[in-house]
Specification:
By secondary structure, this protein is mainly α. It has 5 helices and 3 strands, in the order αβββαααα.
């Protein structure tokens, strides 16, 4: 899972900081820009990286921030219910855990989407998981809100199929 130097530089521009570990771009905008990263579960210094999928598209991050600031996390929890959210966390954790190096003996990532153990912490990581083809009802719910509110950019990234 090694990103080329030019790709790392572009991701750093989009994030506003250097990426902390290894990643691969799994979703792109129509212009080729990275939109979703799939992170290695362990950083180079051995620190666990619980966020397997990371949304690096600034326009979409901002749009989701608008939904969150209007109570989106609370609304998603109420509309989807704890069972659907727990299933999304379990799916995410299982995928992340499969990516763990076989010889790793230090601390491991824990929790589900973004390291959350239950409930919702943010919509961004769920949306990134959903865009990358994950079975994530929170990501799908977020996409529906983005469309309803006209917040998606014209060239927004499209969901990939696994």
């Amino acid at each position: 899972m090694t990103a080329v130097t030019d790709e790392r530089a572009r991701v750093a521009e989009l994030l506003g900081r250097a990426p902390m570990g290894e990643f691969e771009v799994v979703v792109r905008r129509s212009n080729g820009d990275p939109a979703v990263l799939r992170n290695a579960p362990i950083l180079p210094d051995g620190t666990p990286m619980p966020t397997l999928y990371w949304l690096c598209d600034p326009a979409v991050r901002s749009a989701i921030g608008t939904i969150e600031s209007d109570g989106g996390v609370r609304d998603a929890e109420a509309q989807l219910g704890p069972e659907a959210i727990a299933a999304a966390h379990a799916d995410y954790a299982a995928e992340r855990d499969k990516a763990m190096p076989a010889d790793h003996s230090g601390p491991s990532p824990y929790g589900g989407v973004g390291g959350t153990r239950e409930g919702l912490k943010c919509l961004h990581a769920h949306y990134a998981h959903w865009l990358a083809g994950g079975d994530d009802p929170v990501g799908e719910w977020t996409n529906e809100r983005l469309i309803e509110r006209g917040l998606l950019p014209v060239d927004a990234p499209k969901r990939v199929q696994r």
